[in-house]
Amino acid sequence: MYNLKVLIVDDELGMRNGIQRVLEGFRMKLPDVDDEIIFQIRTAETGAEAISMIDNERPDLILLDYKLPDITGLEVLEQIDTTDETTLTIMITAYASLETAVSAIKSGAFDFLSKPFTPEELRTKVSKAAQSIILAKHVKKLNEEKRQVRFQFISVLGHELKAPLGAVEGYLYMLNDRTLGNELGSYDECVQRCLVRTEQMRKLIIDLLEMTKIESGNRQRELTEIDLTEVANMSIETVLPEALKRKITIETHFDSPVMILADRTEMEIIMNNLVSNSVKYNRDNGRVEIDIKRTEDRIEASVKDTGIGMTKEESAKLFQEFVRIKNKKTKEILGTGLGLSTVRKIAKLYDGDVTVESEPDVGSTFHLNLKSHKPIE
Amino acid sequence: MTDQTKKTVMLVDDDFDLLNQLKLQFGSAGFNVISADSQEEAETLLKTIKPDLVVSDLMMENIDGGFSLSYYIKKKYPTVPVIIITGVTREIGLKFTTNNEEGRKWIKADAILNKPIKFEDLMKEVNKYL
After folding, report:
1. DSSP tag of A369
2. For B8-129, which CATH class?
3. What CATH number labels A2-141?
4. Residue-wise pLDDT tens for chain A (377 aa)?
5. What secondary structure does DSSP assign to A242-272, as a single string?
6. What is A221-371's CATH number, 3.40.630.10, 3.90.180.10, 3.40.50.300, 3.30.565.10?
7. Do the Cβ atoms of A169 and B116 come within 8 Å?
């Protein structure tokens, strides 16, 4: 049940009662709202009474008579905030002159209703306003949620950027104060760690820029027909030196080529993340298996590793922004906690998703599923 | 091998490098150093080791791990001083202090210092308790 608060402002008792009766018996249903809408009515006889009631508790809809005993309906409108789209006013005028209607709308009324009107006319106007109010409320709620998410994101980001800076600063102070003596060699580890942390910070910034590009929608997406196995092979090439060093073998099972109508950069971001993770989080002498295949109208890819794996709880939060699984095993591995959340965002653009199956110390398999649009003929 | 003539300090921080810096600095200042990168690890070590002093970060895997850790320490070793260092004041403006009755009522640590902290300032505080 959805309660819409209505304030009827009219000096004629008959009018107030009439409107009240019509609306109280009115049950409205909107296509986008699951609940039935019912009207909760309050009434006022004068402009002054209306203003004080509005100040007290803001109604969603005001049915406002133009001609009131103290001030006019227009003056009431002037005294209430008409910029808030979650409160709308329907001006009721006795003289169906275009002039009054226009001035009412100019002063911020949503609509007008000329006396005399039938119950049907009243319901039609009220329905239209109610629809608009509910939409405005919905938008307002969404914006607030968005602001919340944004705020949280920025505070986490601030923390993630400050941590490496603090670490580097700490080592620099040690060098500056010659904390470990005058032998330059004593500071080798400090310098090494500074390099690791600045590298991490650079990665974070790059990941962040990629994510913003995807999120903002400002980036020019260029959909062309590309071979996903070719993209995967390029990602493999990038991680090959690291894989060789740690004796990790990478196997591919491609029914080559697998064509997809997609943006190349987006596919590269996906493949780079999944492939580099499969090496980064693998054990030495481990294995990576990459499958890419086409089903009816979708592309399915999986990247399987024999790495450290995750618990169910850890997998559950893996795709959130800035979530890095922190434990003894991941401590030495550089990561920003943005890669997989970006992968998921891109997958959603292709009406798809990325999911993970994982077992601690056995390995993880990431499944990517994308819709392949029909190639343009 | 621990040198019996040296004081033993336990250092706790979940940031690898901040912990490392404390380790290097306390080491070069002539302490025996034991370190932990989580509240959990610290509590495990404390089962068998009684340090002369503990320096711990506040925010670790649990939101206020430093507070719970100092509570644990004071219950086990009431005489071991605990110093908490935190960046939380600068980050979100929350201020904790043991300089008044109110703070001492629930914060079991002996001192709370704000990050970033110069090692000499930290040493000054440490020397108050040793």
Report:
1. E
2. alpha beta
3. 3.40.50.2300
4. 788 999 999 999 999 999 999 998 888 877 666 678 889 999 999 999 999 999 889 999 999 998 889 998 888 988 887 777 788 999 998 766 778 788 888 888 999 898 888 999 999 999 999 988 888 888 888 888 878 777 777 777 777 788 888 889 999 999 998 988 899 898 999 999 999 889 888 888 888 887 777 777 666 788 889 999 999 999 999 889 889 999 999 999 987 789 998 988 889 989 999 999 999 999 999 999 999 998 878 999 999 999 999 988 888 888 887 777 766 677 667 677 788 888 998 898 899 999 999 999 999 999 999 987 654 43
5. HHHHTT-EEEEEE-S--EEEEEHHHHHHHHH
6. 3.30.565.10
7. yes
Tell whether pTM > 0.90. no
Taking alpha carbons only, the member of B67, B122, B114 closest to residue B95 is B114
| Chain B interface includes A181 (CB < 8 A) | yes
Of B28, B115, B116, the CB nearest to A180: B28
ipTM of the complex: 0.78
Query: Domain-by-domain residue ranges, chain A?
Result: 2-141, 221-371
- Intrachain domains A2-141 and A221-371 with the same fold: no
Q: Which residues in chain B have Cβ-Cβ distances shorter than 8 Å to A179? A: 24-25, 28, 119
DSSP for chain B, please give it.
---TTS-EEEEE-SSHHHHHHHHHHHHHTT-EEEEESSHHHHHHHHTT---SEEEEES-SSSTTHHHHHHHHHHHH-TTS-EEEEESHHHHH-----SSSHHHHHH--SSEEEESS--HHHHHHHHHHH-
B24 interface with A at CB cutoff 8 Å: yes
